[in-house]
Automatic annotation (TrEMBL):
Lineage: Bacteria, Bacteria division CSSED10-310
GO molecular function, a single term: signal peptidase activity
Places the protein is found: Membrane
NCBIfam families named in the record: sigpep_I_bact
Gene: lepB
Broad enzyme group: hydrolase
Reactions listed under catalytic activity: Cleavage of hydrophobic, N-terminal signal or leader sequences from secreted and periplasmic proteins
Name the record gives this protein: Signal peptidase I
Main subcellular localisation: membrane
Membrane topology according to the record: Single-pass type II membrane protein
Keywords for this protein: Hydrolase, Membrane, Protease, Transmembrane, Transmembrane helix
Family: Belongs to the peptidase S26 family.
């Protein structure tokens, strides 16, 4: 006994191929819009954000909230590197527009109040003195959590708001270290 398979016409194959092509196109466009306007993954390279983030980890940054709310001191952000805007960096916001920032013996003081930085390992803190300086309107002062190994606003200056593209919200790799970033 032999099994007879139905003949599939060329027209049916073309019809299904076109439908599949349209579906792939729609899914691709939806993914492109999602990555462009909603969320994106980033790989951490280097030690500038230790101990919060280590080289080789992957994070998700959301890109929506800063359209509706302000960037705040303490936010971990993705930004375009001001001297070379084709590169992205991950840093922590220390001072916002019109804030007066001073760093005394490595302790950031914003508008006269020392920042509480539980995320800083004391052995990774730098001990320089900066300021006082006023952050210009539309700009931010950012630093890495590993103050001794971070190339940040102390070196390249203030970051324009338009260069801050998202807020880091989750660590997703390695799987054993999945967590919310605060």
């Amino acid at each position: 006994m032999s099994l007879k398979l139905p003949q599939i016409s060329r027209e049916i194959i073309l019809k299904h191929t076109k439908e599949l092509g349209r579906e792939i196109f729609v899914i691709g466009m939806a993914m492109l819009l999602f990555i462009t306007f909603v969320m994106q993954t980033y790989a951490i390279e280097g030690s500038s954000m230790e101990p919060t983030l280590q080289s080789g980890q992957r994070v998700i940054a959301e890109k929506v909230s800063y359209r509706f709310q302000t960037i705040e001191t303490g936010d971990v952000v993705i930004l375009f590197f001001p001297p070379e805007p084709t590169k992205t960096f991950v840093k922590r916001v220390l001072a916002c527009p019109d804030d007066v920032l001073e760093i005394n013996n490595g302790i950031p003081v914003v508008n006269g109040t020392p920042l509480t930085e539980e995320y800083i390992d004391p052995t990774l803190r730098s001990y320089e003195k900066i300021g006082p300086i006023r952050v210009p309107a539309g700009y931010y002062f950012v630093m890495g959590d590993h103050r001794n190994a971070s190339y940040d606003s102390r070196h390249f200056g203030f970051v324009p708001q338009k260069y801050i593209t998202g807020r880091v919200v989750f660590r997703i790799w390695p799987l054993s270290e999945i967590s919310i970033i605060e």
